[in-house]
Structures are given as structure tokens and as C-alpha cells.
Amino acid sequence: MKRSMGAKSLIYPTPVFVIGSYGEKGEPNVMTAAWAGICCSKPPAISVSLRKATYTHGNITRRKAFTVNVPSDGIVVQADYFGMTTGREEDKLAAVGFTPVRSELVDAPYIEECAMVLECKLIQTHEIGLHTQFIGEIMDVKVDEEALDKDGICRMSKIRPFLYAPDDHNYYSVGKMLARGFDSGKAIERKKRK
Amino acid sequence: MKRSMGAKSLIYPTPVFVIGSYGEKGEPNVMTAAWAGICCSKPPAISVSLRKATYTHGNITRRKAFTVNVPSDGIVVQADYFGMTTGREEDKLAAVGFTPVRSELVDAPYIEECAMVLECKLIQTHEIGLHTQFIGEIMDVKVDEEALDKDGICRMSKIRPFLYAPDDHNYYSVGKMLARGFDSGKAIERKKRK
Asked: Which one of A118, A155, A164, A167 would you mutate to disrupt binding with B, by most B Cβ within 10 Å of its Cβ?
């Protein structure tokens, strides 16, 4: 039996990403966002939804660029902090001792301490309602050398991203490997053929 | 040191959702999608990116509605299967023995066997490139009674969603609770004040 929870923006799980941009004075700024994800393969693109009230909203509109930084579970406290304060009032990266790196591809900074970063150029802006959805073309994905295996494959176990559960209000780690993608489902094909 | 992976649609983690829609003959159809997530709070809305070639793309365009179903880690094989075959050729729900339920709110079916389902009315359609992004207003979120605790809070540990890692090609479970959201970051505020 299912219970109706009402019309709300609730789904499990949501990712936790840190959005990098340059502020009004050209200073590096970051904020945490859970409402973001890949939205196209050609061109490779990612969407990020932000309220107009955020400092980052103005920054992206002005510079037409942003980065998406994937924090690992070891820096969950810092990522939570980036979502609680505003870059209008302080240098959040300095507050936690993180290092902004100027992207050579887009007009936005990325975070050295994040194992995976996406450098994005704004290509579309959609007004949905309270949130604006920014669509960024992914110009490059950069990954820490230590997060790659010997074949150059980027492993979940090395990036160690974490998740947020809206109604539950907690962050969760990624757990164990469950199954192979585009492969484990073949068991159903085999069963059908019998 | 970071290594450049190139301009590609790669980020960790991505969620695994199953999109429900009615097909050309009114039959219930489902497909698995990882490129989806909440995009607005007012109105509550979710975006789902699909290639034009998918059967679901035409279904959503025609019926102006879809559901987003969250599979638990116990049905990872079925979810993988829903992403490997097309509803043009077979009834995927019947193939795995799952039950479509007609939504009373939108013109799309949801899956009884998924612990969390969102019923969505199409409000915007954006052409990004190879993928079309459908924006659905969330008319209701329905959750299995067993996934709620005594206070009516929906717990990650009871929904047990799982994740997909694109480059790695594996599904992963959700792991342990790491920290409280909008709370653990206060430790940095306290440290600054010292």
C-alpha cells in the first residue's frame, strides 16, 4: 500500500555537487547543489537548478560558465558548509582551506580538493519557476590520477561521491557494487527463452 | 594531479530511475533512465532527458505525462533489463512479472513494485541536442507505507535506491549514513569563531 506524500520535490537519491563560479569582484565562489545531473550526450551537457536568490545564480548569468565539482565522502562537512553560507559575505574556500584553480577552458574556478570536476560553458537557461535551470556544455572532465585504475577507468570506489536524502535530511556514502550495467538484465532474457 | 578525460557526459554518481508512460496502443511501458533529477521546488518539478529514438520519448510527447519510479536494490536486475530492451517489441513489465498501476492524477502508469513513485505532468520540453529534456510537474509523490518511519519520514535505508557509475559500468548500493545535512557544516562555523 502506498501513501500519498503530496506534490513536493522529493526523490531518492540526490547527488551532492559543488558549483564553482566567479563572483561580482572576480573572486572564486562555491555552493553545494543537489539538483543537478547530466542532460545530454551530444553535446555533453549537465543541468544545474538554482534559486534566483543565490549568489551563484548571478555569477553564472554574468560569466556564462560554471564548474561542477564532485566532493568525496571525506569532505562531507566542507560540502555541507558550502550549502549553508553565502559567498556574498565570505570566502568559503578560504574558510575550509581549499584551493580554487582557474579553468583554462571556461570562465570559472574548480576545486583542487575534489577528485572529479566538470568545466562547463552555459548554453541554455530555462525558467522553471522558483528555480532557474542552467544547461552547461561540458568542455572537459578532469579526474585525479589516483582515482583512475591501470586502464584509465574512473572507479566509483575511488571517487567516493556521496548522496543526500531530502526528507531524511542525511548524507549517505556509496555502498557495495551490486551488479553490472547493461549486462545483469540479460538473466531475464535467458529466462524468457527457456 | 588531475587527468583530462575529454568532453564527455560523465559524472558520479547518477541515480537509476524507471520512467513509466503509455505506449501507442495505450499499453503500459517502462524504461530505465539515469539522466533525471529534481529541477524546481515551486512548482515541484523533475527533469528527464531522453533520446528521440526511445519509445518513451514519443509516449511522453503524446500523453504529456510520465511517472518516475525509484527501484530498490533488490530489483536491480529488472531495472537493468528495462534499460536494455524496447517497449516497441515487448511488454517489459509482464516479462519480469511487475504490476502497472493507472495513475489517478496523470495519464501514465506507475510500478507497484517500486517503493517510491512520482506522478508527473509535462510542463516544458527542451531540445538540448541528441537528448530532449522533459520537465514534469510533480503532482504527487507516493511511497510504500513500509518505507516510512513512525513520524511519516521517508528513510533512505527503507527506500534503498541504487546508483549507476557511467565509466565504471556498475550499479552500486547506498551505504552508511555519513552526516546530518544543513548541520554537520556548523563545525566549520564554530572553528572560525575560535
From this structure: A167
Q: Is the peptide bond before B71 cis (omega within 30 degrees of 0)?
A: no
Query: Cβ distance A161 to A146 under 8 Å?
Result: no
Q: How many CB atoms lie within 10 A of CB B191?
A: 10
Digit-coded pLDDT (tens) for B91-122: 999 999 999 999 999 999 999 999 999 999 99
List the single residue in B with minimal CA-CA distance to A82.
B185
What residues of A are in contact with residue B11 (Cβ under 8 Å)? 15, 17, 37-38, 46, 68, 70, 116, 118, 141
pTM over 0.95, yes/no:
yes
Asked if A164 and A171 touch (Cβ cutoff 8 Å), the reply is yes
For residue B147, the distance in angstroms to the closest alpha carbon of chain A comes to 9
Question: A15 forms bridges with which residues in the sheet?
Answer: A163
What is the pairing mode between strands B2-6 and A131-144?
A: antiparallel
- The topology (CATH level 3) of B14-193 is Pnp Oxidase; Chain A (2.30.110)
Q: What ranges do the domains of chain B cover? A: 14-193
Strand residue runs (E) in chain A: 2-6, 14-15, 17-22, 28-33, 36-41, 44-51, 65-70, 100-102, 109-111, 116-127, 131-144, 162-165, 170-180
Question: What distance in Å separates residue B27's CA from the closest CA in chain A?
Answer: 20
The size of chain B, in residues, is 194
DSSP reduced 3-state for A80: helix
Complex-level ipTM = 0.96
